[in-house]
# Entry
Amino acid sequence: MGKILNVLLILVTFYCVIRVFICDSFVVSGSSMEPIFHDGQRVLAFKPGIGARIYTKYDFSETVLHSFRMPGFKRLKRGDIAVFNHPYGIYQDEINFRINHVLIKRCAGAPGDTVLVEGIDPFVVPRRGDRIILDSCTLNQFRNQIEFETGKKMSFGGNGTIILEDEPVTDYLFTSDWYYFIGDNLSVSQDSRHFGLVPESFIVGRVNGGGTKEDFDY
# Structure
């Protein structure tokens, strides 16, 4: 009996290690990634390349993600497919985390890339260390991302002044990498064209078998 329990413990441990550090499986919901992936198809999100995301707090009733990322050896790039948490998992007016509320989409803009998608104005995806000048345009474009990074609310003060919490600000330095994701089946996909940028910390892993970045120009 003791040997059986030891074997079971080893198997459970091995299973958990695989899921946490190597890959996890997810079921595609909907047709937004057709014809590459179909509704009900199971895919694997591989983690070592970008680095496995390790939770530091397991109270998932909160809407804040507490985690760090293990070192990786291959950053997510334009054209890659990834599984990530929806950036508006519960509330629609601020970026927030909901466990297991995930999407599978293709990266149309990695940090520092210029997004060229039909129907929207070109813009550069923010990366850690990028500084922007704050005005009405950039505030409207990046308000939620800045509030997510700082945990502070932004608003307009008098004479066009931009206020971060209680302090007037003229520029902002990003502390996170951000990504822009789009579904291959554009006509039905709800993606970054609708909900905007996704923080790097929300990415679960890369999905293989979806073509190369040169094959997909939006």
